[in-house]
Amino acid sequence: MSRHDWYRNKKWDGDIEAAFTAKLKRARDKSQYLRIQASILADSQPEITLQLLEQYFALGVHFDYAQAWLDKARAHLSLDQLNQAIQAYQSALAREVE
After folding, report:
1. CB 72 within 8 A of CB 41
2. I need a labelling partner for 4 at 20 to 30 A (CA). Which of 10, 11, 23, 72 fits?
3. CA distance 37 to 39
4. At what angle do helices 46-58 and 65-78 cross, to 10 degrees?
5. pLDDT tens, position by position, 20-54
6. Cα 93 versus chain centre, distance
7. How far is the C-alpha of 73 from the C-alpha of 22, rounded, in Å?
8. Quick check: is 82 in a domain?
9. How many structural domains does the chain have?
């Protein structure tokens, strides 16, 4: 992975998290990097996805807000949390209406 793809990790551990956090602190558009990284981990590490998306949503509304809700739904589905997944899908649809 090139140094430009620091937000596209397919695996996650303490070292990767530390490197990601360090780069994120220096990034201008933190929301986009959080959302992309969360999306990549949604199926394999859904707990991490939910943590990253919590940070993403705390930054306010961005152009990819609906996609973040879809990523959250995928993470919940990976955890067999159907009700939370449905709520996230509903939030994605509501954002698209806006």
Report:
1. no
2. 72
3. 5
4. 150
5. 999 999 999 899 999 999 999 999 999 999 999 99
6. 17
7. 27
8. yes
9. 1
Give me the pLDDT at residue 2, please.
53
pLDDT of residue 80 exceeding 60, the answer is: yes
Distance of CA 1 to the CA centre of its chain: 19
CB 77 within 8 A of CB 51: no
Output the 3-class SS for 35-84.
Answer: HHHHHHHCCCCHHHHHHHHHHHHHCCCCCCHHHHHHHHHHHHHHCCCHHH
d(CA 26, CA 3): 14
Residue 1, domain member (yes or no): no
What's the whole-model pTM score?
Answer: 0.92
Distance CA 33, CA 26 (A): 11
What does the block give as tokens for 39? 């999306």
